[in-house]
Design a protein that fits this description.
The longest helix is centred in the last third of the chain and has 37 residues. 44% of the residues are buried. The chain has a two-stranded antiparallel ribbon with strand order 1-2. Strands 3-4 form a two-stranded antiparallel ribbon. Strands 5-6 form a two-stranded antiparallel sheet. The chain is built from 26 helices and 6 strands. By secondary structure, the chain is mainly alpha-helical. The protein has 3 domains: 126 residues, no CATH class; 133 residues, no CATH class; 199 residues, no CATH class. α19 packs across α20.
Length: 643
């Protein structure tokens, strides 16, 4: 039975994770999931409505959820909120989606009696009386450089941007003040032909119908004003349906996607209302009228239309919708936590059963991690690392891959412990980074070259992974020596060999990646090296790994010293990875994020404490004392530990 117990445990864990990833069956009613799969162009890429909802909510609050106004947290209904915002903005205005820190300046601005600390939650309706004050304070705050802004200034700017985004969303599929958009576009369609005829007759000094002329001018002005709040482009324009020389300033372009204003103004130019406008008009009217059948039927017809006209635009949004709901990286976080628990317990009880369980489950979790990584690459059409979020995913993935090889070679559980710990922490970092915006965003122009993303960025990130792994191996060395009785000479030597081997790989990857980065910089900016903060950070990683190797080769540090030096490498790498982004300066500052300062400082302090713990005299190391009780340490053995 013990032989099959690891497989049984892993199969149960895998079945649980897969069941969580399966799309939930939607109850009868409006087909919100179908709506969430509809494509929309935002930020230069086509995404599903579901992603637009998630990205928009994360811009308004840090958890990406909303309170419907009656106290219910609807964490799984982002698409529902977006549909409500599009079709019934008067209801969406009551949802408490805007989150602001309860700072003294915020409390005085909103005349709130709440205590400082925590967060305040407001609806659009709640904030209406304070729009002018918010705009005024945000304008003043914007005059200060980003790195010099205080907490209140950052919060008020974020609130203003969230309000602007919300107003743009409300005017994405219809003018927000339209009582029934379906009827409005019917009236508009009936106005186009006589209105354009009146304009032509008027220009030719012929008799014209004044009423038809005024109607078409009224609609034109209305939709031109609507173009001022463009953000998401939800209306596909079939090739050949657009006339030439349309005005891009009013949202009419020759691209394949248009804003509602551009689609309606196109109708004036062509004399025919585009089908997507009619389809969305029916959907909005059906939703406002509570007609479930009409909504679902109209949605099905529109999906069939998209399948015929833009089939190439549907595959990625549908996959992204499923990817959003499956949340493979979140499931991997939970599984990495289980692996860590099993691996630690294997050092105390049932080493064979729990050790094998940890390895098998780590392999399955790695496969899940890989599937999520590959899916992201397909959705973005890029190599694995394009921003801070993707770098966290890739650092964890490559570290787990290294650990699987270590576990295969040494079979001592250390690979399982380090792989699960690094996988858990890096995916936890990514889980928090995803709330900073679209994690699949279009690349900055300087990064938009796949060959260098696939070489320099990937290789230097592998250097991050290997350096972190050597640091975590050092933590295991110090922790086992100080806290456990099982730290024998064989474990000590094997851990030291693992640290040395990984540092060699880290030196190779970090050095090669830095050189490739210099070549890229020479091609992009005309100089190989400019002492940019990110460049300095990469150089520090190379130098620190070289210091560790020379300390070992020159016999300046033995096993304990190498472990302590490797742990300090975690500090160097974390500063290069995240710290330089907090400076807000340099050509590589693509991810300024002040919120990470606190966690980064806590991590650095923890690593300093571990390094200090490594300096505790050996007589206080529990593992060494246990060994001395069994057999005295020889002179050579003492030298092994003392440096």
């Amino acid at each position: 039975m013990k032989r099959f117990l690891p497989w049984i445990i892993c199969l149960l864990c895998a079945a649980w994770a897969i069941s969580k990833m399966m799309p939930a069956r939607q109850n009868s009613g409006f087909n919100v999931d179908g709506f969430g799969q509809l494509p929309v162009l935002v930020g230069g890429r086509v995404m599903p409505m579901d992603t637009l909802a998630r990205v928009s909510l994360s811009a308004m609050n840090h958890h990406g959820t909303y309170d419907s106004g009656d106290g219910r947290k609807l964490t799984g209904s982002q698409s529902q909120w977006l549909l409500e915002t599009f079709a019934m903005p008067e209801h969406a205005d009551l949802a408490k989606v805007f989150e602001v820190k309860a700072l003294p300046g915020v409390l005085s601005l909103f005349r709130s009696s709440e205590a400082t600390g925590g967060f305040l939650h407001y609806s659009f309706q709640d904030l209406k009386p304070f729009f002018s004050k918010i705009e005024e304070q945000a304008g003043l705050a914007s005059q200060t450089d980003a790195e010099s802004q205080d907490e209140f200034q950052r919060e008020i700017i974020k609130l203003r941007e969230g309000l602007r985004r919300y107003i743009q969303l409300k005017n994405t599929l219809q003018p927000e003040d339209s009582p029934d958009f379906g009827k409005e576009i019917q009236a508009f369609e009936q106005t186009i032909q006589p209105g354009m005829e009146a304009i032509r007759n008027r220009d030719a000094n012929k008799p014209f119908d004044q009423q038809d002329f005024e109607r078409i001018i009224l609609f034109t002005d209305r939709y031109q004003n609507l173009s001022q709040v463009r953000f998401a482009y939800a209306f596909p324009a079939v090739s050949g349906s657009l006339p030439r020389n349309l005005d891009p300033e009013h949202g009419i372009t020759s691209d394949r996607w248009q804003h509602i204003s551009g689609a309606l103004l196109t109708a004036i130019a062509t004399g025919k209302l585009p089908y997507p406008v009619t389809a969305y008009g029916k959907l909005i009217s059906a939703y406002r009228g509570g007609d479930t059948n009409a909504f679902n039927h109209g949605l099905q017809e529109y999906q069939q239309y998209l399948q015929k006209t833009l089939p190439e635009e549907l595959s990625r949004p549908r996959l992204e919708f499923l990817f959003n709901h499956a949340q493979p990286f979140y499931q991997a976080i939970l599984l990495y936590g289980l692996v860590f628990l099993f691996a630690l317990l294997s050092w105390l009880i049932w080493p064979n059963v729990l050790g094998r369980t940890a390895v098998i489950l780590l392999l399955f979790t790695f496969m899940l991690h890989t599937a999520g990584l590959v899916t992201r690459m397909y959705l973005q059409g890029r190599p694995p690392v394009t921003n801070l979020y993707s770098s966290a995913i890739f650092v964890g993935w490559s570290a787990v891959l290294f650990c699987l090889f270590l576990e295969r070679l040494y079979k001592n559980g250390v690979g399982s412990v380090c792989g699960s710990a690094i996988g858990f922490l890096t995916l936890l970092i990514a889980q928090n980074l995803q709330w900073d915006g679209d994690s699949l965003e279009m690349l900055r122009a300087v990064l938009d070259t796949n060959i260098w993303l696939a070489t320099h960025v990937v290789v230097v990130t592998l250097g991050y992974s290997a350096t972190f792994l050597s640091g975590f191996l050092g933590i295991v060395y110090i922790a086992r020596g100080l806290l456990t009785n099982s730290f024998d000479q064989e474990n000590s030597k094997s851990l030291a060999r693992m640290i040395y081997g990984v540092v060699c790989f880290a030196t190779l990857f970090s050095f090669t990646g830095t050189i490739l980065g210099g070549i890229w910089a020479d091609q992009s900016w005309g100089r190989f090296w400019g002492w940019d903060p990110k460049e300095n950070g990469a150089l520090l990683i190379v130098l620190w790994n070289a210091i560790i190797l020379h300390a070992r080769w020159g016999d300046y540090a033995r096993e304990r010293g190498i472990a302590a030096l490797a742990v300090f490498g975690n500090i160097v790498t974390s500063l290069s990875w995240f710290g330089v982004n907090m400076l807000g300066v340099g050509l590589h500052s693509y991810g300024f994020m002040d919120r990470a300062f606190g966690p980064l400082m806590l991590f650095i302090i923890s690593q300093f404490l571990i390094v200090a713990a490594a300096m505790i005299p050996l007589k206080y190391w529990r593992g060494i004392r246990a060994r001395e009780e069994k057999a005295p340490i020889t002179e050579d053995g003492a030298l092994l530990y003392n440096r």
